[in-house]
From TrEMBL:
Protein known as: Rieske (2Fe-2S) domain-containing protein
Rieske domain location: 1-55
Keyword Iron set for record: yes
Family matches, as InterPro entries: Rieske_2Fe-2S, Rieske_2Fe-2S_sf
Residues annotated as transmembrane: none
Molecular function per GO: 2 iron, 2 sulfur cluster binding; metal ion binding; monooxygenase activity; oxidoreductase activity, acting on paired donors, with incorporation or reduction of molecular oxygen
UniProt KW keywords: 2Fe-2S, Iron, Iron-sulfur, Metal-binding
Lineage of source species: Bacteria, Bacillati, Actinomycetota, Actinomycetes, Frankiales
Length: 62
């Protein structure tokens, strides 16, 4: 939806200020304030090469 998640290190979770929900660091929903439970965050392939974090984002179907 275009919202930037904020890391809450004390709670070990990611907060979405736009939708007032929170996700575990594994992407599971831990708190929400909407009627329908949201889906977990998608899983992305990540690697570190020479100190640079690379994230593989699959292409969007057309």
């Amino acid at each position: 939806q275009g919202c930037r998640l904020a890391l809450d290190p004390a709670q070990q979770r990611l907060n979405c200020p736009c939708h007032r929900m929170a996700f575990s660091l594994a992407g599971e929903v831990v708190n929400y304030k909407i009627r329908t439970p949201p889906r977990p965050l998608p899983s992305l392939t990540v690697r570190e090469v020479d100190g640079v974090v690379q994230v593989y984002v699959p292409p969007t179907p057309t």
